[in-house]
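Quick one: structure tokens for this chain, please?
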Amino acid sequence: MSKRSAGLRIGAALALLVIAVLGAWVAGAFAAPSPTAERPFRLVQLPPTVPEAPEPPATQPRPAATTNDDLHRWLSEAMPGQFERLGPGQWRFFFEERPVVVVTDARAGRMRVISPVAQGPIEPDRMQRVLEANFGTALDARYALRDGVLWSAFIHPLPSLDRGEFYNGVAQVITLAETYGTTYSSSGLRFGPGANPPPDRAPGGLEV
């Protein structure tokens, strides 16, 4: 056999081998994937995005509980030198001719501002007006009976009482007492620093 014919046979064999390899590759590339065949990757379903919760607002610190010292300071600011301290948790002053008393019970956490209105039996029609006023026109103050005396009173928890509420309560007590027999109302009077200061003491009125 000549060298030429041997070379032709070898070349033909190599060509057939290349064609077979290419055919197998093409058949594998276009063939349907086997259901059991392991895929090189898989899709992962991500959970829905949950928005982050907003930061809670900063809480404001609670104000300190009101004490008898606070009441004494507030009275000093409203009427310096024009009131007297009767004892622990007790003060008295006069607004024009009207006596006003402030009493606290620190253990029970209560405070009241009171002023006497009338003494002795109350006529039925006036008692009717007093009860009606307590429902409406008396606002935060109230008429109250104790030991045969009709009082004007403002009652409030001591720890949560603030300066403005105290001044407003005093003003309502005075006004409600002064309007007994007319409008039975507790609005209209200003009390506190800058308001008309009462005198040291005026004669008249019921003693408290």
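Residues 196-208 have pLDDT under 50 and may be disordered.
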